[in-house]
Amino acid sequence: MRYSRIRQKPGENMYITSTAVYLAELIKIIACLAVILFQKKSIERFWYVVNKEILGQPGETLKMFIPSALYALQNNLLYVALSNLEAATFQVTYQMKILSTAIFSVILLGRSLTQGKWFALVLLMIDDPIENTIDNSVVNTRSTTHPTSQLLLVAQNPLIGLIAVITSCVSSGFAGCYFEKILKTSETSMWIRNIQMGITGALFSFLGMIFYDTQNIWEGGFLQGYDSLTYSVVANQALGGILVAIVVKYADNILKGFATSLSIIISGIISFYCFDFHPSSQFTMGAIIVMISTYLYGRPEKSIIITTNDILKISIKS
């Protein structure tokens, strides 16, 4: 996504982010419908499920309005953030969504966090100001002969990027916990829920596209600036949204923790080779703290096993 936003050449139109978000929602709906069709193995059964669960229950679709609106906001903010921040810097800073998710999980899901988990979250909060003290010399060390060096310096505002990331973290935390509560307190299929969210998400994305980019779309076309890379980014966002729902329903914190840590390392390596990104000591420290705090938050607490003999001993002493 970062590369697709900074590789614009002189005279070329940049693709409009609101259209990319809207297309991602449509792809998500189509992918979920395809899964349901595969599961039901016939058009008749497929249509029965769609008619009963989606068309016949508009109230259930309305439940998805809140997370859909927040996810639409978040998806647009991701493009804003990655237009103004290095991909690796964004990846580390974006981990603050773990903190917002934890807070909303306590509020919305009634969970209680152990001292170890709160320590991990505090460690994550300490990381953010450390990571954002990256020296300007890191930016200045980019070679002027690098193919993307001039593009990286155009209209790049780290403050705007940081604000976009923080807002996205808050919206992501609330929307994720809200969606998890709906998924785990309902017997409705996860694929149906994704379609319901996709419908409302597409509506919000369409309204945002019309409200903000009508003139640009009218002048340059809906698919202006699109190429194979742009379509890949859109597809990745769409399928990634489905993957988030699968993680929420099936995966545990350990798997999410290791995936998050691995993604930070991969983002740093790719940014080094593709964007001439030179990590400073502060960034390296920040990345290490994120990985440690993510692991501490995700590891399982030691369970206390009480045997029958223990119960008997306690009863005798009593």
Describe the structure.
One of its GO terms (molecular function) is pyrimidine nucleotide-sugar transmembrane transporter activity. It is a multi-pass membrane protein. It comes from Diversispora eburnea. This protein has a domain at 2-110 and 156-256. By secondary structure, it is an all-alpha fold. Helix 2 runs antiparallel to helix 12 (190-220). The radius of gyration is 22 Å and the shape is globular. It has helices at 2-6, 17-40, 43-55, 58-62, 65-84, 87-93, 97-108, 115-131, 136-140, 149-152, 158-184, 190-220, 228-250, 253-274, 281-298, 308-317. Residues 131-154 have low confidence and may be disordered.
Compact summary:
This protein has 16 helices and no strands. It has helices at residues 2-6, 17-40, 43-55, 58-62, 65-84, 87-93, 97-108, 115-131, 136-140, 149-152, 158-184, 190-220, 228-250, 253-274, 281-298, 308-317. The radius of gyration is 22 Å and the shape is globular.
